[in-house]
Specification:
Distance between the termini: 88 Å
Shape: rod-shaped
Number of strands: 3
Largest sheet: 3 strands, antiparallel
Order of helices and strands: HHHEEE
Strand order of the largest sheet: 1-2-3
Amino acid sequence: MRRRDEAGTSSLELVIVAPFVLALLMLIFVFARYAQAENLVDQSSRDAARAATAQNVRADVPKIARDVVADAMRDAPSSCRDSAQVTSIKMTSGAFGLPDPNDPTAIDSVSVTVACTLDLSDLTALPMKSVTIKRTFTSPLDRYRPYR
C-alpha cells in the first residue's frame, strides 16, 4: 500500500530517466552502424588487395580493385556505399615481374586503401554528422605463381 505523499514519484522518475535511456539507445544504433560500415570497409580493402595479387598484369590491378570494392560494399549503409572508393594502390617495385632467383626472401606486395564517408545525421537527434572510415590492407604476391 502506498502512502499518499509518494503519489506520482514513479511518473517523475520516468520523466527524468527517459531522455537518458533514449539517448543511450540512439548511441547504440550509431555505434552499430559505425561498426558495420567499418567492418565492410576493412573487408573490401582485404578482398581488393587479395584479388589484385591474383592478377598477372600490373595494369589490371586498379580496375579489379575498384570492381571488388564496389561488390563488397553492396551491403553497406547507403552513404558509405555511394562514397566508397579505392583511395590508393601501392605496389612494390618488383610486383608482377619475375622474382629475383638470387633473393628468395624478397616478397613483393600490393596495398589497397579504401575509404568511405558514413553519414550519421539521420540516426539521432544528437549532433552527429558524418565520419570518414579508411582502411588499408597489404597482400603478398605468391612468389611461385605462374607468370605470363
